[in-house]
Amino acid sequence: MTHTITLTVNGQKYTREVEPRLLLSDFLRHELGLTGTHVGCEHGVCGACTIMFDGESARSCLMFAVQADGHEITTVEGLAKDKDDLHPLQQSFWEAHGLQCGYCTPGILMTMIPFLKQNPNPTEDEIRHALSGNLCRCTGYQHVVDAVKLASEKMREIED
Amino acid sequence: MKPASFDYHAPNTIEEVVTLKSQYGDDAKFLAGGQSLVPAMNFRIAQPSVLIDLNRVSDLSFIREDKKVIRIGSMARERHLEFDASIEKHAPLLHEAVPFIAHPQIRNRGTIGGSIVNADPAAELPVLMTALSAKLKAKSKSAERWIDAKDFFAGMFTTALMPDEVLAEIELPFAEARTGWSFMEVAPRAGDYALMGVATLVTLDENGKCKSAKLVYLNAGDGPVDAVEAAQSLVGESLNDTLIESAALHASEKEINPFGNMHASAEFQRHLAKTLTKQTLKIAAERATQEN
Ligand SMILES: Cc1cc2nc3c(=O)[nH]c(=O)nc-3n(C[C@H](O)[C@H](O)[C@H](O)COP(=O)(O)OP(=O)(O)OC[C@H]3O[C@@H](n4cnc5c(N)ncnc54)[C@H](O)[C@@H]3O)c2cc1C
Ligand code: FES
Ligand code: FES
């Protein structure tokens, strides 16, 4: 049996029919065509599928689309206004070489946005701790840490 | 992989929850945070034919003080336990330990009830419930009962809950005066399940002697392992290094029963248990002298 759900993704309202077993990650990618949310492991370990659910980071592979009825989701596509106007966190990843293949990047961004909101001036240790739930097979994390640090500086400047 | 298909119910009240469960029994599973159940479903280790989603049930996510206890709804998120002021004040052991559970993204969804009912021997919350002498309220369509944490965990991934019961609420007594606490674990990486961990409590009497103690271990057997003999050996004594050393030795050699895994041999787990017991007992004893 399918269920009708209405949810907001990146500020836009969608109504769709879904089977209960459809994962939220697959719904975003295949139903809405928002393929920026990546899928690595489907058991909560890699972090590639991390989105913001009502403003808090969460694994989209560990939720069913039907659970998102009435909720608000932000995916990586919701960060930049357009390709020349990146979010400061995205801009910092560009400038500090925070990505190589980019597979892990959307999940890291969607983890770091709420993290930086709660910790506007994090230490390197805090950043590494906050990154522990996101696997990256390319960068060795150093440039990711640098990028988050740079972003925290940029974002504090904007705040001031 | 993708989960097998199932029927989905999202009730709004606890009455509907228990009615559905009495109807479907073991065929139905509750969906709380989904952080253990959904991975199992994605792997098809679990293939429930019915899911009863608890996320829309009102008034199941509370954390509140009530006389000398803290009452926690089973759907309170792990992330909320972490930042709750009552828990910090009256159950500081829990406050200290919650950040060791998984990653923030997981704690944003994972619930206290889900982790308790999941009864993973490597999980923190079952150990903490045992150490804190929590009472757990099980509710069915026809009845309600309170179960002591020590009687709740019935082995690997097994609890005392009946097929028609939901875990509704957790009751934690306030920490007694002159109680010190410490939680420590060793994990390969922050957020991973730990190789070994211990929740330690020490309560002193007016003369600074040990009135009671608790040492409960994770990943040390087929559920939370309560080292009652080691804890008892401290009672009535002033906690000094020799006493702590012998309690740690007894707990780690005689009372726990770790199985070993690909990350750590049973012998290494015992070594960790001994070291962590000594460290946590010292910290807990020290803190107990400062708490009145
Ligand atoms: C990457 C990763 C790392 C993790 N690391 C850790 C860790 O280090 N330590 C740790 O302890 N946990 C860890 N977890 C598990 C996490 O803490 C889970 O949130 C928790 O174990 C289960 O809680 P949940 O609310 O998600 O429950 P669910 O997954 O929704 O449910 C778990 C089980 O409990 C049942 N259930 C749930 N609620 C109730 C209820 N109220 N009454 C009766 N039955 C109920 C369900 O039917 C299911 O069988 C990790 C998970 C992931 C994905
Ligand atoms: S795909 Fe969701 S955590 Fe790996
Ligand atoms: S950049 Fe390739 S996985 Fe992180």
Shape of chain B: globular
Mean pLDDT across the residues of chain B is 97
What small molecules does the structure contain? flavin-adenine dinucleotide, FE2/S2 (inorganic) cluster
Radius of gyration computed on alpha carbons of chain A: 16 Å
What is the CATH domain class of the largest domain in chain A? Alpha Beta
Structural class of chain B: alpha+beta
User: Any guess at the CATH architecture of the largest domain in chain A?
Assistant: Roll
Domains counted in the coordinates of chain B: how many? 3
Q: Which sequence of strands runs across the widest sheet of chain A?
A: 2-1-5-3-4
Roughly what is the average pLDDT of chain A, rounded to an integer?
Answer: 97
Please sum up the structure shown.
Chain A is of the alpha+beta class and 160 residues long.
Please provide a written account of the structure.
The complex is a heterodimer of chains A (160) and B (292). With 160 residues, chain A is an alpha+beta fold. Chain A folds into two domains: 3-78, Roll (Ubiquitin-like (UB roll)); 88-159, [2Fe-2S]-binding domain (DNA polymerase, domain 1). Chain A has five helices and five strands, in the order ββαβββαααα. In chain A, strands 2-1-5-3-4 form a five-stranded mixed β-sheet, with helices on both faces. In chain A, β1 and β2 form a beta hairpin. The longest helix of chain A is centred in the last third of the chain and has 18 residues, at 142-159. Chain A is globular, with a radius of gyration of 16 Å. Chain A starts with a strand and ends with a helix. Chain B is an alpha+beta fold. Chain B contains twelve helices and twelve strands. Chain B has helices spanning 14-24, 37-42, 78-83, 85-90, 92-97, 104-107, 112-118, 124-131, 149-152, 228-232, 241-255, 266-290; strands at 7-9, 28-31, 50-53, 63-66, 69-73, 135-139, 144-148, 166-173, 179-186, 196-204, 210-218, 225-226. Chain A binds chain B through residues 1, 3, 19-21, 23, 26, 42-44, 47, 50, 53, 56-59, 61-64, 66-67, 111, 115, 129-130, 132-133, and chain B through 1-8, 10, 31, 34-35, 38-39, 42-43, 51, 53, 55, 79, 102-106, 108-109, 189-191. The complex binds flavin-adenine dinucleotide and FE2/S2 (inorganic) cluster (2 copies). One FE2/S2 (inorganic) cluster (FES) is lined by residues 39-42, 44-49, 59, 61 of chain A. Residues 99-104, 136-139 of chain A line the site of one FE2/S2 (inorganic) cluster.
